[in-house]
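As a warm-up, study this chain.
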Amino acid sequence: MEKSIYLAAGCFWGAEHYLKQIEGITFTQVGFANGNTQNPTYEQVYTDLTGFAEAVEIKYESYIIGLRTILRLYFKAIDPTSLNRQGADFGTRYRTGIYYTDKSDLPVIQEVMALEAKKYNAPLQVEVAPLKNFYPADEYHQDYLDKNPTGYCHLPIELFAYSKNYKPINARINEKLFALQDTAYREFHSKLMPGIEMDRIIGIRIPKLKKLAKELAKDPEIDDFITNIPHRYYEENNLHGFIISEIKDYDRSIAEIDRLLPYVDNWATCDLLRPKPFAKNRERLIKDIRRWMKAKQTYTIRFGIEMLMTHFLDEDFRPEYLDWVASIRNDEYYVKMMVAWYIATALAKQYDATLPIIEQKRLEKWTHNKSIQKAIESYRITDEQKKYLKTLKV
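Now compare it with the structure written out below.
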């Protein structure tokens, strides 16, 4: 998915040369951003009377590099505490700024800004605003340092080598994923995932994916991967799920689950999410479960029901939880199947409390019968109970 961002980093000659070499950035163009006139010339901007900042228009492939990564690299090339000055260049045209065209980018920008602010004792002077306007500079200024290798630049030459050799974590992860590809397994597994296009499935067995997740969880740039969604491949979503399941802090775990759930588009990814802190935070968890079950997205609802089944059918069980599930009316197959799975498991663990749900026919017909079918298949249901449940089919 191609996206855009506009960055002001002092003199745009060096800023463009630094940014254009980063893998995943597909297009750059220098120009003038967020000023007060139309079609300004370089000479007019140079007077500092137009309000424009020298900036670089950036297009990037978000599956390869995320905005968070780009911004981290951007901050490496600026002094963010300097007002209207970078290197020897000073004036409002040389101010630093991040200008966005997609409102959904703002939380990422604010997050990175907050992280960078912690590194300095002085306040950041980086302007953050929606892009008001952008006018490309003359051809003379485009790719200036490619045309003039010995031309002026306020950035140290080491930065150019760094950006040229830098490999974003998304690109590194994709290389690791394809190194684990099993094409025969891909063919087999794709048949279990009818809603996922074949070209989104790499074909990696779960034990290998779990092992890779534990390895990557230690990568200092892993946050760039888990905040850069949606992902392209099914296995990237699964890898993401395994990584955030290892988070031990409850609040952060919930934040990352909430970030991922809207992008979960299949039962397998949904069902592998097993956050570690949930078991020790059940009082807080039940409120989040209720919230998930009231959502509109298929797999958010399914995840909520599954967490209710996983954590609240034993010592923390309450009959009212059965009512929550029985009241769900949703035509999505994977929601109905999860309701049936929950009721069947509840029959195995809390038979007397759950049986009235079936006897009173509180579920819609398909889910009612599927719940009975799955309960009958369970070894935890007695033969006598199974015999009676069979008489309750509709």
